[in-house]
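Protocol step 4 of 6: structure prediction from sequence.
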Amino acid sequence: MTGFIASQLSQTWLIIAPHPDDEVLGCGLLMRAIAASQGACVIVWLTDGGASHGELPPTARNALVSQRQAEALAGLAALGIEPLATYFLGHADGSLASESVQSAARAQLAELSDAHAATAFAVTAADDSHADHRGAFDIAAGLSLPGYAYPVSGRYDGDRVDVAAQAIALLDPAGATLKRFALACHRSQTAEGGARWPLSQAAIDRFCNEPEVFIPISRLAS
């Protein structure tokens, strides 16, 4: 029992990720459930992910941004996801707490939502420790659609999510195997790839072995 009804999954979702890899970490199984229900995913990455390796010269930073975009698309393919559309909005990594960036990104999301007749969205949780994740929540929460928040930062840090209290969870052993393949595509985000906060094997195990959790944003506002 997922907590999502079939009619929700068979429609068009905005999957909103602060950085390339958040969509797989928090929504890999959700995207597969949407695809299995003949729904559609429009995937939006808010930042360029260019700060994951610290301060870099412009040429190296641009190369990292291009690499992360390619990794994100490869990860979707590894999951077996064929999105309706993908958008890299390109805001600077680390900028989503800025009011001006939030205003611009909010307008972009509203435009994409209208263009694709989206019916629901998923975005990182309001209490994630990463400022960009909290900023992404603030940006998306203004959409006039049913929304669901998915935790990422706390799970990366090793926190266990109280699934019973949060109500909606997805666990799919077959999908979890593909999720591992998808995360393996994000080579830049490993210690070997030079990432400041690398995807360790322990973190990958948590994200693949434990359910994905989604909190209805209407519940958070009540």
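Step 5 (inspection) to follow. DSSP finds ten helices and seven strands in the chain.
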